[in-house]
Amino acid sequence: MISVNEAIQLVEKQSKPLLKSIFKSVEKAGGYKLFEDVFSDINMPPFRQSAMDGYALCLHEGLTYNLIGEVKAGDAHQPVLKNGEAVRIFTGAPVPDTANAVMMQEKVAVDGSFITVQHQIAVDTNIRPLGEQVKKGALALSKNTKLTPAAIGYLSSLGISKVNVFKKPTIALITTGNELVDAGSDLTFGKIYESNSKMLLSALYSLKFYDVTIHKVEDDYSETLSKLKTVIDETDLVIITGGISVGDYDFVGKALNELGVTEHFYKVKQKPGKPLFFGTKNNTSIFALPGNPAAALTCFYVYVYVALQKMMDNEVVGLPRVQAKSISNFKKNGDRPQFLKAIYSDDQVEILEGQSSAMQQTFAISNALVFVAEAIETIEKGDSVEVILLPV
After folding, report:
1. Rounded distance, CA 98 to CA 218, Å?
2. One domain for residues 215 and 299
3. Locate the MoaB/Mog domain: which residues (predicted)?
4. Residue 259: what pLDDT?
């Protein structure tokens, strides 16, 4: 049995970046990282553009201008202005080549076909120059840039419809157990509704990992062996819940060993989630999580999350950790480090009741985990504690 820190370090060391690419349509590329530099095919803006509603002026020494026309956003015509002439113009509209400044409408008085500006303005005032954001052929976004909504909008504004991005891992979720039935089925005596796959699928989706398949196996060795062989051969990451302990009907460990999976660790000195397995075979990472839901989700956030970030070649691989003031008292049973379900807000954290590894209700309202190190026996109100912030 190894320590929490040793387990995290092994996951970091053994999880390898995929370094594969895939072309995605821009609107579906959010959350991905660019696999290569992206260069602009156009100037942006592609013409001299008005920065506001107002009047485009061909500057002269006076304050009064002859109004000769109008240019709206999307117009293609280019009025020719002489000194002392102006056109009405709107935000985003092309500024005529013969205009050299735009005066905002709030500083203009209109009298029929003449306007009077409040003061002289400098050349190029309120004009966005050609290629102000990026010039044709210039670098638009660098390799490894994470595509946020703003980045998607920016690429779309350049007319880019597809991008080459780092491929995200294919993931298989496997639940084990004869006692599990799907929601909507009759809950006969001895059965429970299966929740781990939905829970972990939601966690993966929230992190923008969508290439996920779900599999269910009975407590049968041959079926377990066959399913594990298939998914290990076909996916980048396998997450199993249940069947990893040492009971008579826990077949996962035996099957992984027969399949030649390299074990990096089995059992971590922690609570919840002691019977946690991590191994690899070829380029596939395999986690076998405890079957109890709260333990499975805790192990996902502490360990599987790290593997996912490493596979995406991200520099920051763990969830954020902060120090916060406890507003609760807590006494630890035993010497194992613990991850406690908690609510964090404004640099304070409340340790919740119901810390059992099977308790989902408490986890449902948590937004953090308090990590209680091995050396800590009690937490008193006002103590500073280490808090892991969960994704929202």
Report:
1. 78
2. yes
3. 172-310
4. 96
**Residues 106 and 156 reside in one and the same domain:** no
Residue 180 confidence (pLDDT) above 70: no
For residue 323, what pLDDT band results from cuts at 50, 70 and 90?
very high
| Interstrand relation of 338-345 and 348-351 (parallel, antiparallel or unpaired) | antiparallel
Same domain for 285 and 205: yes
Domain containing 381: what range?
321-389
Strands 192-193 and 180-181: parallel
Range in 185-189, 239-243, 323-327 the model is least confident about: 185-189
Distance CA 40, CA 319 (A): 35
Does 135 fall in a domain? Answer: no
Whether the ω angle into residue 275 lies within 30 degrees of 0, i.e. cis, is no
**Structural domain count of the chain:** 4
Count other Cβ atoms within 10 Å, centred on residue 137.
12
pLDDT at 278: 98
Q: Check pLDDT > 70 for residue 220.
A: yes
The Cα–Cα gap between 208 and 193 comes to: 26
Q: Tell whether 176 is covered by a domain.
A: yes
Shared domain check, 208 and 333: no
C-alpha gyration radius of the chain: 30
Q: What is the pTM of this model?
A: 0.83
Q: Which of 360, 364, 304, 366 is nearest to 192 (CA)?
A: 360
Higher pLDDT, 219 or 217: 217
The predicted pLDDT at position 354 comes to 82
Which tokens go with 332? 């630890």
Whether 136 is covered by a domain: the verdict is no
Residue 239: which CATH number?
3.40.980.10
| Bridge pairing between strands 338-345 and 277-281 | unpaired
If you average pLDDT over residues 100-113, what whole number do you get? 97
Rounded-to-integer distance, Cα 278 and Cα 15, Å: 10
Each as own residue / partner, the long-range contacts of residues 59-63 (CB below 8 Å, 24 or more positions apart, any chain) are 59/83, 59/100, 59/101, 59/120, 59/121, 59/123, 60/84, 63/116, 63/117, 63/118, 63/119, 63/120
- Tracing tokens 């999976």 back to the chain, one arrives at 261
Q: What angle do CA 324, 384, 307 make, to 5 degrees?
A: 60
Torsion angle, CA of 232/238/241/247, rounded to 10 degrees?
40
Adjacent-strand bridge partners of 216: 175
The answer to whether residues 302 and 177 belong to one domain is: yes
